[in-house]
Amino acid sequence: MIRRLGAPLAGRAAWVVAGAVPALFLAVFFLVPVANLVLRGFHDGGSWTLAGFSEVFSAPRTWRILWFTLYTATLATAACVALGLPVAYLLHRCRFPGRGLLRAIVAVPFVLPTVVVAVAFGSLFNPGGLLEFLQLKESYLAILLALCFFNVAVIVRTTGSVWSRLDPRLGQAAQVLGASPLRTLWTVTLPALGPAIAAGASLVFLFCSTSFGIIMVLGGVKYSTLETEIWYQTTQLLDLRAAAALSVTQLVIVSGSLLASTALQRRTQQSLRLHVDDSAEHPLSPARDWFALSVTTLVVSVLLVLPMANLVIRSLRRDGQWTLQNYANLATTGSSGALSVPVWQAVWNSAWIAAVACVIAVTMGVLVSLVASRRPRNRGGRLSLTLLEGAFLLPLGVSAVTVGFGYLITLNRGPLDLRSSLVLIPIAQALVALPLVVRSLLPALRAIDPRQLEAARALGSSGWQVLRRIELPHLVRGLGLAVGFALATSLGEFGATSFLSRPDNPTLPVVIYRLFGRPGPDNYGMALAASALLACVTAIVMGAAEQARGKGVSTW
């Protein structure tokens, strides 16, 4: 009797510990630093005050920035949905040679460093670029195109994974009853895809409203979002009250997007338990699928491939000649003292920091996913797991500057005096990558049919045996994708790293931004070469992750 009672208690204690470890990590390295910075903004001379809010929101500039942030995010989200749905159909419902390669091409832009994409679009429209004649340098359209470049993959991945599992007999029955293909799409397919589309759209809105590197490089002095304004108020004006007011505003927007995304994501989980064979797919027919084929060709060739191809071409040219001089200059510190160390030193820094960040993010992500995938019977338990999952998605939307500056004013005394330590950079990068790791692993665990788990327990398997024989094999199916996301995200992280890195130990994205902001053809050529190098490395990592992805693991 004691043994029977002891086993469940030990199992519950183990799950409590498994949840407590990542929760403590999140509290120490995210919640406390962010809360400390925000609370300082409400404290003035020994008293608490809301003067920062009244000052910030009485300024017309704040409302212009808030409107620009929301309007741009909404417009970019609508464009991503319109472009992403035809691509999702073609890549997940049609069979044709080269589909796997095309999926990788569409997926890679999402994890490319923001500063690289900004440099790529800047070089496309700058003098000498392939689209210089459009005169879109530092234009609003260039910003929108860059945001769509990043986030079309979100719609394709979240919607396509569900679309590939829809029962084709529903649409076939509608057509037998006389419905046209367009009416079938409108009345049968899109309503079934509604939760997945809405979940992807809420994520796209979140990413677009918190895009830091795109606005910093492409926006110039004309455009500002909440993200860049927090950076400006914190680093240039040292106005913590204004930064705190803006951070709280951003947190409200982010929390709304995350709650919507999490709720809608749960509604799409049931589709992941449907068949994972290819019975819902059909061979590509140009006559029938001409619209999806045309949109996909336009998106892939113009929106995705052209900017990166132009970046590589520009990095290989100098004064109208083909040359490798820009790459050879990576062994230097640039002209006019642009850098403190050669670019290759930054490459090494990025590599080892990303490796450490990946280990941290994947370890914490595995624990969070295992705990969040539990199926408690009581409502309180389910609510607790929902809040746990939502808490680990918050780093996606909170300003990286808020996190970085919070580190400097919080982790500056014992026992965690890490202000001058390089360990803060991989920790910050791990926090950014952690939500993507969780979103890569958790759907694979939730796709397990509960009846399979109940049958195993009914046959006498203990909780540990169920975990080892059923849940862990499903978790491994998404592990390759999770590692790829963690590495690629860490390699390209710019926001928090730009705030925490020192001049003698920069990462590659920070070096690219510094070179891009310095005048001179040598520095600009080095920025192009370093951007092309980082893009290639990130693409290779993500391509390998896609190859390692288990069958049926296509969402995150």
TrEMBL record:
* Major subcellular location class: membrane
Could you tell me where this protein is found in the cell?
Cell inner membrane; Cell membrane
Q: InterPro entries per the record?
A: MetI-like (IPR000515), MetI-like_sf (IPR035906)
This protein's UniProt keywords = Cell inner membrane, Cell membrane, Membrane, Transmembrane, Transmembrane helix, Transport
Q: Which GO terms describe its biological process?
A: transmembrane transport
Q: Is the keyword Transport in the record?
A: yes
Topology term for the membrane:
Multi-pass membrane protein
Keyword Cell membrane found: yes
The UniProt record lists the ABC transmembrane type-1 domain at 66-259, 347-545
Give TM regions. 12-32, 65-89, 101-125, 140-158, 170-190, 196-221, 242-264, 290-312, 324-345, 351-373, 385-409, 421-442, 478-500, 524-545
| GO CC terms, sorted | plasma membrane
Q: Which family does it belong to?
A: Belongs to the binding-protein-dependent transport system permease family.
Name by which UniProt lists this protein: Iron ABC transporter permease
Q: Which organism is it from?
A: Tessaracoccus antarcticus
Q: Which lineage do the record's taxonomy fields give for this organism?
A: Bacteria, Bacillati, Actinomycetota, Actinomycetes, Propionibacteriales
